[in-house]
């Protein structure tokens, strides 16, 4: 039966262009390389190289074997790297529980860095209701969580302020208020408010007499595009939705800022991936 070392010799012979060049690359005698290929042909029961020419060339079977050898050796390398990674203390899986509003471009940038650094860690990203995030972390259902700061301090977890979520008032481009040069906050009460229930803040309350509530971010964006509707919306949502536009209220010169907390369990040993994400999270929500 063939082994990986034989397949590595085959690949090297093809890439180097000859048995002698492969032998020099390996630091072996050419006879050793020729013997290795001959034994592979015996084990496989096929002719891999056509030796009728001055420089041996792959037969049709040899070409297929070469391509499959490349794939198999690549997989073997991945397995070797994965085993080394796990033995060094890198987790095989990691779960993030996060408020849907916090899936910002900066968050995804950090996640992309995570992929490069921990390619063999299976990552689970679960969007969870804000008040349930700390519960999932404390119960071990999530390794780390990211939530908006609420009125009640969660128990059995450790919190850390890692950033802010800028929020403004948004509405469709054809909203009547966009045509005004000056807009007072009280004027919003005349229009239907779309209230996102998963955004905890003292001012994210029933402000208008006509209100629609939703806990789904996609639904929030669709409702805001309807006639005469408005809502408090994270800046990254408004900026990435061409159908929405910020309503500039005279008395509000800057965005509202919601505190973002990192949530981890108490007294739990963290692996390398968790430790890296914990440290990197301080830049995860940069404005």
UniProtKB/TrEMBL annotation:
The keyword Chloroplast does not apply. One of its GO terms (molecular function) is transcription cis-regulatory region binding. It comes from the Bacteria. Residues 2-59 form the HTH lysR-type domain. InterPro entries: LysR_HTH_N, LysR_subst-bd, WH-like_DNA-bd_sf, WH_DNA-bd_sf. CDD domains: PBP2_LTTR_substrate (cd05466). Keywords: DNA-binding, Transcription, Transcription regulation. Belongs to the LysR transcriptional regulatory family. PANTHER family: HTH-TYPE TRANSCRIPTIONAL REGULATOR, LYSR FAMILY TRANSCRIPTIONAL REGULATOR. This is LysR family transcriptional regulator. It comes from Aliivibrio sifiae.
């Amino acid at each position: 039966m063939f082994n990986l070392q034989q397949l590595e010799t085959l690949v090297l012979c093809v890439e180097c262009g000859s048995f002698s060049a492969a032998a020099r690359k390996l630091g072996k005698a050419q006879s050793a390389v020729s013997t290795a290929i001959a034994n592979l042909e015996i084990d496989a029961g096929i002719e891999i190289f056509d030796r009728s020419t001055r420089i041996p060339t792959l037969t049709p079977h040899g070409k297929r074997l070469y391509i499959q050898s490349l794939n198999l050796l690549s997989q073997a390398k991945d397995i070797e790297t994965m085993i080394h990674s796990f033995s060094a203390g890198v987790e095989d899986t990691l779960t993030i529980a996060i408020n849907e509003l916090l899936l910002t471009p900066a968050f995804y940038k950090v996640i992309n860095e995570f992929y490069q650094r921990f390619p063999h860690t299976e990552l689970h990203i679960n969007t969870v209701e804000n008040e349930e995030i700390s519960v999932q972390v404390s119960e071990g259902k999530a390794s780390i969580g990211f939530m908006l700061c609420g009125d009640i301090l969660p128990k059995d977890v450790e919190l850390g302020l890692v950033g802010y979520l800028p929020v403004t008032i948004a509405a469709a481009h054809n909203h009547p208020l966009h045509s005004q040069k000056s807009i007072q906050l009280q004027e919003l009460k005349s229009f239907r408010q779309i209230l996102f229930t998963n955004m905890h803040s003292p001012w994210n309350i029933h402000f208008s007499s006509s209100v629609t509530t939703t806990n789904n971010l996609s639904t929030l964006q669709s409702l805001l595009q309807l006639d005469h509707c408005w809502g408090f919306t994270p800046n990254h949502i408004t900026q990435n939705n061409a159908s929405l536009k910020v309503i500039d209220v005279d008395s509000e010169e800057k965005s509202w800022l919601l505190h973002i907390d990192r949530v981890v369990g108490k007294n739990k040993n963290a692996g390398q991936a968790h430790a890296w994400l914990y440290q990197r999270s301080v830049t995860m929500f940069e404005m």
